[in-house]
Amino acid sequence: MRYKQEKAPCTVLLILANIIVFFVLTAKGMTEDAEFMLGHGAMYIPYIINRGEYYRLFTSMFMHFGFDHLANNMVMLLVIGWNLEGEIGKIKFLIIYFLSGLSGNILSALWDMQTGDYAVSAGASGAIFGIVGAILYVAIRNRGRIGTITGRGILFMIILSLYYGFTSGGVDNFAHIGGLISGLVLAVLLYWKRKRKYRESAWD
Predict the structure, then answer these.
(1) Is residue 11 within 8 Å of 81, Cβ to Cβ?
(2) 168 among known catalytic residues
């Protein structure tokens, strides 16, 4: 007996959108330059608060500082997103992705306002940590596994990612934490186990 592999069109479209935005920006300037990114929609708290540019909470989710930043996020989105979307469906997946990304950015903004340490920030990692939090809950509900991913593997990845973030410079850790918590909570609210589709092979 084997489970039918679900498709994940929303995951693919999100990856394509991020890649397209990156190469469009690359054609115009340096994506590793904070001033350039700021001029094209990256998040910066003084601009959001003083100018009312709240759209930056959203647009920054599709912007990345250099190819390595993009590649790391897209690989994680492909692996985690494909499994999660196939399990919970397109609409719930998109709700978790975007609300987690916004929640991560809001928590990051609140932290910056608290410390007064403002930085230009961008990236899909808040949203991606949201789907990581969601898939952790889904895996727990499914006896520790979802698709090819185990709950222990997800937990190890979370710990490793947060450790790397807090021991490295230039990482928006509070966007990660905000996204992770939001994704976990949203999964609790939106997910319920469904009957798996499967096919029987001649060897079953």
Answers:
(1) yes
(2) no
**66 in a domain, yes or no?**
yes
Question: Catalytic one among 64, 100, 103, 176?
Answer: 176
> Average pLDDT for residues 112-131, to the nearest whole number?
92
Q: Name the domain count of the chain.
A: 1
117 or 61, higher pLDDT: 61
Of the two residues 17 and 147, the one the predictor is more confident about is 17
Predicted pLDDT at 20: 98
The answer to whether position 204 is within a domain reads: no
Active site residue 125: yes
Domain membership flag for residue 4: no
Q: Which of 125, 161, 182, 201 is catalytic?
A: 125
Q: Is residue 200 part of a domain?
A: no
CATH number at residue 143: 1.20.1540.10
| Mean pLDDT for the chain overall | 86
Amino acid at residue number 174: F
Q: Domain range holding 92?
A: 15-192
Q: How many helices and strands (H and E) does the chain possess?
A: 9, 4
Q: Please give the pLDDT value at position 204.
A: 40
DSSP codes joined into one string, 41-100? T-B-HHHHHHH--TTHHHHGGG--SSHHHHHHHHHHHHHHHHHHHHHH-HHHHHHHHHHH
